[in-house]
Structure formats: structure tokens, C-alpha cells
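On clarity, I found the account of how folds are encoded harder to follow than it need be. Since the whole study asks how a given chain folds, the encoding of that fold should be made plain. For illustration, here is how one protein appears when written out as sequence plus C-alpha cells:
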Amino acid sequence: MRQSKTDGSLEGTLQWAIERLRCKGYEVHSPVALSVDSKLAIMGYAKKEGGAHRIVISEWALDSEMLGGLVLHELAHVYFTERGAHSHDGEMLDELLHNLKEKEGLRAKEMEYLIDSFNHLQNILVDDVVFAVMDQKELEMTKKFFAEWVSDRPSGDPVLDTALLSRNAFAIASLRRRGLFDKESDMNYRNKSFLSALGAHTEQEFEWVEEFLEHSKPDWDESEFRESIREYFDRMMSLMRSSAKLDDLR
């Protein structure tokens, strides 16, 4: 799925991805444009522009073998947004975060990592679409991609370590959700090393987060979605505000 940097090639990649989804029954109806941001730190993102959508790709991602998969992934976000999925309701997320901020007095870094944890939920849901259109070669490439996400040692900062735990859980849940996780894989051993270094209770908390992501449902109704996110955020807050060794979790 490697592509060149030319505008024509990028447009071709976009049309290829739109058709790939359409052929599997995931048709995007809105106009979609693709642009490159030379200063973007992440690989890419999708945003709504009135009745249209734009996928923004980082310049450094243009040389990635995962470029085609990235465009598919961002198109899946567009697909979910078009259908009014609760996972893509920005107003609901803002309300939930505002209420938590009022209740808990969130610091900026805590807010940032809560949003990251929410993004993991969004991404695992939209990737149901992406995995459904991948061939075997692309699936193997994706397994390698997720393996590189897993951290094997904590930082000692409970806020950052919660973000790393959530990221590890997302990577493992992404493969377990599709029956692609190998218990003998390097990523599993790296995660076990990470959890072992954090100490007591961490494995149980990790299992809750991983299972929450693995079994999350795109068809939760609004009430179910709100309740699930509240519990998810409460878990994240408990982890972030524990001791550096995460020994004081309740």
C-alpha cells in the first residue's frame, strides 16, 4: 500500500480507498478531499468541513507502507460520522469531559490523555470496517504496525503510564477483537514486562481496559454509550491519580 508523493497518486489513493470500502458495502456519500500537512506530528486525521470531509495526511506519512491503510482508516471515520455514530458525537464528548472537569478538576495533561483514551475507542470501532476490507498481506502488515505500539517499560509518571497502558491495551485489543493476537508474540511479552514493572493491581486494571476496548459495540444506544464512557473515564482517572507504582488502586 505504499504510495508516491505526487498529487495525482494521492488522489488515486483516495479514490482507491473509497471504492475499496464501497465494494464491501461501506459507501461514503459526502465529498472527501485529501491534503498534506508538513507540520503534522501524527500520521493523519479526518475533519468535517460543512457538508464535506477532509483527510489531512502528515508529510512524513507519505513514505509509509501504511499510507493506503491510513486513508482507509480515516475514510472509516468519515463513514461513522455520516451515520451519526455516538462515538463520533463531538458535543457528547465535550459534555462528558466538561462534567468530569467540574467534578474532578482535570489538569491539562489528564484531559489530553483522556481524549487519547477516547480516541482508542473511536479507532477500534472504525477499524471494524478497515479490517473487513483488508486482504491477508495487509492484515500481516497491520499486525506488525500494532506490535510497534506496545511499550515495555513505564516512565514512573502515573499520568503518562496510564496513557501507555491504554495504548498497549488498544494495540492488543485491536488484534484480539479480530482473532489475530498471538500469545507468544513479542508484543505480548513486552506488555507483560510493562505491567510487571508497574506492580500490584495493574494487570487487573489492564485487563478491564483491554476487554472494554475489545468488546466495545458500535451499536450501543446513547444511554449505553454514555454510561460506558463514564466508567471508562473513571478507570482512567483512578489510574492517573494513583501512586507511581499504581499500588493504591481501588
Notes: The first strand starts at residue 32 and ends at 37. Strands lie at 32-37, 44-49, 52-58.
